[in-house]
Model the fold of this input.
Amino acid sequence: MDLIIEFFQNNLLLIYLLLFTIILGFEVISKVPTVLHTPLMSGANAISGVVIIGAIILVRQAAAEDYFSLGIGCLGIILGMINVVGGFAVTDRMLEMFKKRK
Amino acid sequence: MLSTILDITYLLSALGFVLGMQRLSSPDTARRGNLLATVAMSVAILATLIYPFENAPNNYLWIILSMIVGGAIGWIAAFRVQMTQMPQMVSIFNGLGGACAVALAMVELVLAGQQGGATYGQMAILLSALLIGGVSFSGSLLAYAKLEGRVKDANITFNGHNIFNLVLLAATLGLAVWLGMQADTVPTGLAIGLMVLSLVYGFSFVAPIGGADMPVVISLLNSFTGLSAAAAGLIYGNQIMLIGGIFVGASGTILTVLMCQAMNRSLLNVLIGSFSSAGGSTQKGQGDQVVKEITYTDMAIQMYYAKRVVFVPGYGLAVAQAQKMCKELDDLLSENNVEVFYGIHPVAGRMPGHMNVLLAEADVPYPKLLDLEEANDKLGDTDLAVIIGANDVVNPSAEDDPGSSIYGMPVLQVWEAKNVVVLKRSMRPGYAGIQNPLFFHTKTKMLFGDAKASLQELVTAVKSL
Done:
């Protein structure tokens, strides 16, 4: 119990942040029309590629002879980069088609 | 000073993600919204590259090379993929994001082991990232294989699969908790074991879910990847990862719920995959019912001299790649002042909005695409409803047969139109695995064949009138 109270007090701002981000995520998406659900899902997927930032931090801080961290970290960067670049490009391709009419 | 500027840059990037997603909510601003999110991501990555870490070796050569390789693969994949295969592509991209989180968590776990342990809080974060990322990775790959038709559901499921999944989940979580207790030693072997278990669970979790429900699964796994990114953000105390991850986690979840609502099913019902096994009462007396076929010429005449025609596209149109042919027929009819519109069911195709994307690719004007309610309002005043490769979304059982497994799902009331023609390859039931009384309806005529070939014949027939 003491652990939970301590955690709560130490991370109060973090908990606020999480709560409001979740509400924001719900609010923004609930207004999206069905026609845009596929591009939206694709866009959200691209944003979930922010995990690449962790991989970059990992490799930047890895010692030059620590090949384990470097190797797996670089694999992470490659995977994350595919997610980010591919995700945004695919979303743009889909949305481009919505624009053509008119 | 520099670090403060970069922290502010992160803040602006987070804002860019939120505003970008918000702009995606309208067709007019959607493209700019995506661009905004892209810029926000680029800025965040750039800021991470130059962020001043104390005594960091940086390894820029490694980073830049990896970024170029990954970027090139992503770019080429994105431009090679066909519009009909978009859902699969999103699924793969999503899985790779999950794999990235797994890679990070594994490295950090091993490092923690070497450096003499971690706190319980750190362990909880690392193990969450590992677990969620792993499930997202293997689940997404299986979802891809299912959508590509490379895997038959029957080959990867067995009796009591759902019970097996529960046991597997309990075992995986159990191992995670036990490993979390070993914070002072962090045994690497066990961490690898947990990774394997989470990958197996992700696969086994998606296995019993029917192919038609893959959109829901992809959306759910997308929110998983977001959550694993957020957990990884906690590892590095990085705000943009945390905000971006949680934001995607929340939006993916709400999208999943919206998709389930459109099918009038609960998420739980989708996940335990009981769709095909439920409801047997609809299989009554089909022996004495006959279907009526129609010829291309007859149908061409009916369409050409109608006042209003509605096309109802479904997955059959997508697999046959018939969207352009559909548009051609639409043009011919419109020239003769036939009012053509499209009734789009929210879950037609493989993903919500999938049909809209396909039809937009074929240059069908946006105002012609009507959603469920708009289409149902107009159907009573429509001369001919043409069902192109759709089935469950036009099944009247959903409204009048309480014993049917899709009872209560909102459907397009095509039988309200004066005539109905169904373009279909065969009499095989749709993904819900149930018979469709619409095919035996007095107003209905059938036109068997591949959607694209049939539409081609119809275009020729209309031209020769």
Notes: The mean pLDDT of chain A is 86. The helical segments of chain A are 2-10, 12-30, 37-47, 51-61, 67-100.
